[in-house]
Write a structure and sequence with these properties.
eight-stranded mixed β-sheet, 10 helices, alpha/beta, Rossmann fold
């Protein structure tokens, strides 16, 4: 079973237990989907899974948009006994981002958009595609909530700005409304590590660029968790007994995201880099004005030690949000705290999200 990409080394995590199965997995197709870049995909595919059942009134749905290279199973830490999403009462729609290898991606789209020729897709592109899925295919005109982690949090912010009253409540964990310059540079460094491999051939590789993929994983390792997580060797609390630092690092080097395609990795990095809710019409790049426009209750849960989306960026954004409940996650687990990478953070997230959804 695939876990969240950053939990590959956490082989005994409590959150791997009692995983609910999606009732169905679907492929939603949009014909002639025009991206913000100006390219039109003859067929845009959105893969999504559902949990629970849609009621007769179609008013019990919650959207769970995926994060970097994740599948629709990326939010199962919120589901099941003792957790905040009861699949006997709710209908959960878990969508997969463009570029993850299942939804439309460089690796699975025919020419003229195969490989490096696949257009850069934005967070708004993803939100627009999912909006068409909800309205047109599932006949869901309104959501009880949207809950997003990381790039899923970026989508949650975009929903709050693009469709201010589409959901009753919104939750964002470990993610911001804009990718600020430091985050852009970090992602650029990770792309550079991958593309420096001579086997990459400008994206037209005939075999996976193994050296580049290895370098890519090691660069991510330095950013994923906090410095104190590494110093205190906290991987020992969830990994198999006897796991060493060298084994942890080697897992990033050799098996960070199993079977990932290099062009897919880059596409989602570019999506991440370009995110800015301020670029939504009519805000003309003004992220502060876009944040002021948010109308619905919004639970904002940054990780106190996130190196991807720093707490200072989240505090800055929250100051413009009139409906925000700002609840940092007190964790040493860095970015991964926002997706329950350990039992304490899982408990904190489930309790606070449950309280927010059911005041």
């Amino acid at each position: 079973m695939k876990r969240l990409f950053f939990l590959l080394l956490l082989s005994q995590s409590v959150f791997a237990q009692s995983r609910p199965d999606p009732s169905e997995v679907h492929d939603f197709i949009i014909h002639n989907f025009k991206t913000e870049s100006g390219a039109t995909l003859p067929e845009a595919h959105i893969i999504y899974g559902t949990y629970g059942h849609l009621n007769a009134a179609h008013d019990n749905a919650i959207l769970l948009p995926s994060h970097y290279m994740a599948t629709h199973r990326g939010y199962e830490w919120l589901m099941g006994p003792g957790r905040c999403l009861d699949t006997t009462k709710l209908f959960l729609v878990a969508t997969e981002l463009f570029g993850n290898g299942h939804s439309s991606s460089p690796s699975n789209t025919p020419e003229p958009f195969h490989g490096p020729r696949f257009p850069i897709t934005t967070i708004r592109d993803n939100v627009e595609a999912v909006h068409q899925l909800l309205i047109g295919s599932l006949k869901i005109p309104h959501l009880k909530a949207i809950i997003g982690f990381s790039m899923g949090a970026q989508q949650a912010f975009q929903w709050a700005v693009s469709y201010p009253t589409f959901a009753d409540r919104i939750v964002a964990t470990s993610g911001t409304a804009k990718t600020y310059p430091h985050g852009y540079v970090r992602l650029e460094g990770q792309i550079a590590a991958l593309t420096a491999d001579t086997a990459f051939h400008n994206g037209d590789y005939t075999a996976p660029p193994a050296k580049g993929l290895s370098a890519f994983g090691v660069v991510w390792a330095a950013w994923l968790y906090s410095q104190e997580w590494w110093r205190k060797e906290l991987w020992k609390t969830t990994a198999a007994p006897g796991t060493t630092f060298e084994q942890v690092l080697n897992r990033f080097r050799t098996n960070f995201i199993p079977n990932a395609d290099a062009n897919n990795l880059i596409l989602q990095c570019r999506t991440w880099q370009q995110h800015n809710v301020g670029n939504t019409p009519p805000f003309n790049g003004d992220v502060e004005a876009a944040l002021r426009s948010i109308k619905v209750p919004f639970l904002y849960m940054p990780s106190e030690t996130d190196l991807y989306f720093p707490l200072t960026d989240a505090k800055y954004e929250s100051s413009f949000m009139s409906t925000v409940t700002f609840k940092p996650i007190p964790s040493l687990w860095g970015h991964t705290a926002g997706a329950a990478s350990n039992p304490a953070d899982g408990k904190f997230l489930n309790e606070n999200i449950a309280q927010f959804l059911n005041p």
